[in-house]
Structure formats: structure tokens, C-alpha cells
Amino acid sequence: MFEGMDQIATLAHEFERESYRIDQLIWDAMALRAGESALFCGFSNSTAWIKRAIDIGVEVSVVANNGLRAPELAGLTLNVVRGSTAMIPARDASYDAAIAFHYLHEVDPFFHATVVSELARVGKRCVIVEPGPPSDPIGIRIASLYARAKRELGQFENYHHIDYWRKLLALVKSDVAYQTFQFMRRPPRAAIRDTVALIIDMMAAEAAPEPYVAELRELAKRSDAQLVPQARLVIVGTAAGALLNTSAGTNYRDRLPEERHATTSAKPFVPPRVTAQGAPLPAAPPPATVPSFSRVYSPPDNEPEFPAIEPPAPAAAQIARNAFGLPAEPAARPRPVPPKPVVPSVSDSFGPPDDATDAAAEFGWEWETPEKSP
After folding, report:
1. pLDDT digit string (tens) for 46-66?
2. How far is CA 175 from CA 6, 93, 95, 113, in A?
3. What total of structural domains would you count in the chain?
4. What CATH number is given to the structural domain containing 169?
5. 10 Å Cβ neighbour count for 337?
6. For residue 298, is pLDDT > 50?
7. Is residue 331 included in any domain, yes or no?
8. Is 258 inside a domain boundary?
9. Which pTM value belongs to this model?
10. Structural domain of 85
11. Would you say residue 56 lies in a domain?
12. Chain Cα centroid distance, residue 355
């Protein structure tokens, strides 16, 4: 049993390291520096990123419809801009960076172009950070159910490929750089169950339709349920020729998992146990140790490496729909190709009529082309 728990702890530790790696890549792509000004929208999902930006010396502003500061931002030194992301009350290029952090997938797609245009207007550079679409069958189905449930509640949850965001930003910024950060480690099964349970609890709290919640519960019970973490997309748009920093120059986190989980190996001195007459007692059996996620794990030499996630096959989405009993999309019917029009040549234009041969035989005359005519 302990061996299995050791493996779970190792998987959790490896995936935590992977999550830290992805966060650092996103932080470097945003390239926020001390002394810059940044406008965040969608701050309810990115409080930790706002706090870190303030820590390194960025002047942070956030957009709020009601002008009130969110409870999560209490005590932070920042500016609250009262307005809408579709019409930001600020002059052109007021900020060094305007950032939509995990925000646009919760906005009505009808307004995506408007919001991106406004962020690009008020920011010298516009930064979009979004989750990528799911790439595994279970994840695709969960995202589909969640999006449909949110839509019936008048809300949105739509994930788009990086080209979608890149094209929107390219319409309003001259230069666009974009990156996809893909997870290479899978989370342990326990994390998958916890994630699905959290989604189910959220949907139930939002009064989502029961059929959607029931199907999610059935998906969570499947023995082959394996969620692949969604990739993270970062798209940065700037004016033509503007120089971009290649990294933030700072760490997103001050401590890595090894530093947070490190424990001292030194053991305090324990005097030997003796009887009343001074005779030593037999050594007490060591207490049973229950492995936890907080201790450092040292894998044996013969332990195989955890396999990296292979990129999904091009037809993964189609296979996923069939696997869950959904009707497969019909193959696109080939469009008929119209016949190429025949352009008559000069000789054809001045050729004999169809009945010229019969007329010559009956009346004894010969057809002459215009060149032969006097």
C-alpha cells in the first residue's frame, strides 16, 4: 500500500513541477518589468498574477464594471478603473501592457473583437493568456457539457485555438507573437477525480441542468478517465517594430517545489530506553510512516521515467465524439466542378455551318472563309 502511495506522491510532485514550469513560461512571455504600468481584465481568475506584478514593481490597474475592488484584491496597491472592457475609459497607449488573463473564454464571442480592439488601443502591447481547447476525449466531452450548461444559464465557456486569437489581434496590432505551452506530464488519478468533482460541484451550485451533471458523474467513474491538462496560449501584439523583452527577468514564484517541500534529514539525539535497574530495553519498533505529498521523494535507480504526453492525433475530436455515442459529423461532400468553358478558336468562328456539306452536295457550291472572299 505504501509503495502505491509513494507513486501517487511522486506523480503529484512531478506534475507540480510541470505546473510551475508552465507558469514561469507564461510569466516570461508576459515580460512585465518594474516601473511599467499594466491594465488587467478578468482579475478574479488571476489574483496571484496581479499580486506578483505588484511585488516586482508594476503599477497595476484593473477594470471593474461597478468600480468596486474585489475582496481578493483587498490590501493591494492598485487602481480600479470603472468601466467595461468593451469601452475602456482611457486614452490610447495609456498602459505599457493591457492583459486579458483567462478572461476572454468567459466573454460572449460576439464581443471578442471589440474587447481585443479596446485592449490593443489602450495598451502599447496587448497580452492574451488563454487555456487551449481540450485534446483528449474525456476533456473534450467535459468542456462541451460545461459550455452547454453555462450557455443555458446565460454565461459562456468557450475555448479557441491559438489562430483564432492571433487573427483577432493581428487586425489591430501590427506585430503579433504567439506561443503554446503544452503540459508534458499527466496529473495523478486522484487529481483527475478532484477536478471532475470540483466541476460537478460548480455546475450543481449554478443550478446547471441535471442531465449534464449526471453525465459528468458517469464520466468520472470510467476506469479510462484520463484528463490531459489544457495547453496555455499566450499571444502578444505590439506596434510595428516595437522591441519585446524575451523574458520577465524575474521568477513567478520565489520558491520551487523542492524548496517548499524540503525537510531536514538530521535526527535529534534520543537517549537509550532503560529499565528501573538500568538494563537497556529492546529498541521500540519505528512508528508507521504514512507518505505524504510534503516529503521529498527519491526514486530508485530502476524506476522507469514517466512517459511524456504524446500530441493528440489530428482526428482526436472526431474519435471522441464517436466514443461517447455522439453522431459523427458527416464527411464533407465534394463540390461539383463545373466544366471548363470551351472558347471557340478563330477558325471555328469562321468555319462552315453545320449543313455546309449537305448544301454543297445539293447545290454544287463551296464554302469560302472570309480570308478567301474578295
Report:
1. 689 999 999 999 999 999 887
2. 48, 16, 17, 17
3. 1
4. 3.40.50.150
5. 6
6. no
7. no
8. no
9. 0.65
10. 2-244
11. yes
12. 73
